[in-house]
Amino acid sequence: MALSTLSVLPTLLVLAAASGADAAPGVKPRTMQQVLDASAPADWRRPDPAHTLYLDLPAGRVVIELAPIFAPHHVANIETLAHEHYFDGLAILRAQDNFVVQWGDPAAGEAGKEKSVGSAQRRLKAEFTVPWRAAFAWTPLPDGDVYAPEVGFSGGFPAARDRKTGQVWLTHCYGAVGVGRDNDADSGGGTELYVVIGHAPRHLDRNITVVGRVVQGMELLSALPRGTGALGFYEKDEQRIPITALRRAADVPEAERTPLELLRTDTPTFTALVEARRNRRDEWYKVPAGKIDLCNVPLPVRAPKP
Amino acid sequence: MALSTLSVLPTLLVLAAASGADAAPGVKPRTMQQVLDASAPADWRRPDPAHTLYLDLPAGRVVIELAPIFAPHHVANIETLAHEHYFDGLAILRAQDNFVVQWGDPAAGEAGKEKSVGSAQRRLKAEFTVPWRAAFAWTPLPDGDVYAPEVGFSGGFPAARDRKTGQVWLTHCYGAVGVGRDNDADSGGGTELYVVIGHAPRHLDRNITVVGRVVQGMELLSALPRGTGALGFYEKDEQRIPITALRRAADVPEAERTPLELLRTDTPTFTALVEARRNRRDEWYKVPAGKIDLCNVPLPVRAPKP
Question: Which of A3, A194, A222 sits opposite B93 (nearest CB)?
């Protein structure tokens, strides 16, 4: 069987233990696989269990890395909600094609029926952008952006910044996790979360608080049946997908955790990876783009070597 | 129940008969819904049944509009394949998350087992780009693009062009339909087709022949279970989704067709729609982007008024 395969690696990679094979360091140009094969242990990082969420669904686990530096109050509030089991037993309420999957309390807003938020807050002041500071460790992308003056990576997250306003923000790339809100800017708190499952809706940037991104298990969300109600809401109770549990990794016994390593975005290896993707060198490509869009940069994930 | 809804309309709209309601022509700025409510019958077009495909799956129908002006030989070849029932009984072979769904002959490449292409061709010369001519009726977008010197719409399709080379090409936005190929540029012919189901893989532009786009039924493809093999291929026969039939609308009895109207992209109404999406005016948005990415421009579809 020799299918035409569009031989392109997935954007969200889960690599088996890297092969450590025959890369030729110093020889350019390289493919992404060669860059990864030549990577050193220090090119990889393990996400902090205190800021990692496990969204456990009947079909499996979605792993979310939170970005406390970009939305400190929302992240802390979501971690409190998770620690106190707020989301356990709630449900995925919405799957809108080429847009978002969203979960929360089916009874939200119904007096006397909605679930208590415990010691967490129901509403917080918006964290749509935060002031730039050196701690953000910026890795710029060179090819411009339709929506923002400058885009790049910070702490492993795709982000944008504006030197004029001094603000930086997480961008709505595929897999971004944000905080649903009503019309009031300060009406979200983290009790309803959404994940981008389509073309990056970058017009949401700076309009809603982004708290992190999915690093494994996207297909458990992106392949859900789309809701047939307005905005992709499920119309019947039985269409909703129950949340088995949403926990901080730190609250899960070590043996039940999902060990992952993520490629750092502040290293020469990452810069080489970006370059490998700006100009694809495998035989399939006839016209290398010479450019890359922020949301097309792969952020490799692998299981740690045993 | 008052959920935080991220009150944003879907990018791929299927409108019920337009309300014709209370839009105030001439009063700006307007929302997209106001623009559509004020649209005239002449703002809409019906796709040509000779160049429309119905991909009928067990779960329903996917409607594809072909773009013969951009890929005349591939489109004609695919129409021959459809007319001669080549695809009927074949299968969806691949669903790779954030990338593509692809269908074709599970036995492709197996001597003596693969399906005959009848009077069609198995391989054609690549049509990655075509020479610009006035017939393309270009509606430019004003906000630039990471990948191409110029982007806009032509005949209802998102496209890019380069005045220096005089070439124009269809872009890989969500829903784009392209022709799978092997490493040789001229190795595709239309026996394997793919649809973009994730963030626009614009690096494929000018590397593969794009023949059209899905105008209805995307969710029948985008919500398919992802394949667990390399590149998202299904590993077992029983995981593949059988194609009931893939026919030209013109070959389907009138009573079994799916009547649709698409918003024209060469009218002041479309320009107003783009403007409404560049600067969202509904109450939910706090910081209108002021810009729009090619692949975020909605291309509204509606059922014709009875």
Answer: A3
